[in-house]
Design goal:
Number of helices: 0
Oligomer: single chain
Radius of gyration: 14 Å
Strand content: over 45%
C-alpha cells in the first residue's frame, strides 16, 4: 500500500499564489506519473497537471502558464506551484500517483485525501 499526504491548501486572494505538496510513502519500488486533479462543487474531477518519471509535464489549458508541477524523485514528492489564482481555481485538489511495489508488480493507482483551495477576496 501507498499513502499520500497532501499539504499547502488554504484561502488566498485573487492574484495570489499557493504551493501544494504531496508526499508518497509505503510500498514504493518505482513511481510512474504523478498528477494533480481538482474538483469544484457541482463539477466533475478534472486533471490539472501531470508529470512523468522523466520530468515531462502537461497541463490543462485553463492553468497553463500559471501553474507549475514538479517532482522530487528522491523524496517521492510532487508539488504544484499555483500563481495568478482566480476564484475559478477554487476546488479540492487531489494528488494521484501511479506506482508499483516491485519490478514484477502491477502498476497501482493511489489518491490523496484532498486539500481545499479557496480563492476569494
Amino acid at each position: 500500500q501507498v499513502q499520500l499526504v497532501e499539504s499547502g491548501g488554504g484561502l488566498v486572494q485573487p492574484g495570489g499564489s499557493l504551493r501544494l505538496s504531496c508526499a508518497a510513502s509505503g510500498s514504493i519500488w518505482n513511481i510512474n506519473h504523478m498528477d494533480w486533479y481538482r474538483q469544484a462543487p457541482g463539477k466533475q474531477r478534472e486533471l490539472v497537471a501531470t508529470i512523468t518519471s522523466g520530468g515531462a509535464t502537461n497541463y490543462a489549458g485553463s492553468v497553463k502558464g500559471r501553474f507549475t508541477i514538479s517532482r522530487d524523485n528522491a523524496k517521492n514528492t510532487v508539488h504544484l506551484q499555483m500563481n495568478s489564482l482566480s476564484p475559478e481555481d477554487t476546488a479540492v485538489y487531489y494528488c494521484n500517483v501511479v506506482s508499483r511495489a516491485s519490478a514484477y508488480a502491477d502498476w497501482d493507482d493511489y489518491w490523496g485525501q484532498g486539500t481545499q483551495v479557496t480563492v476569494s477576496s
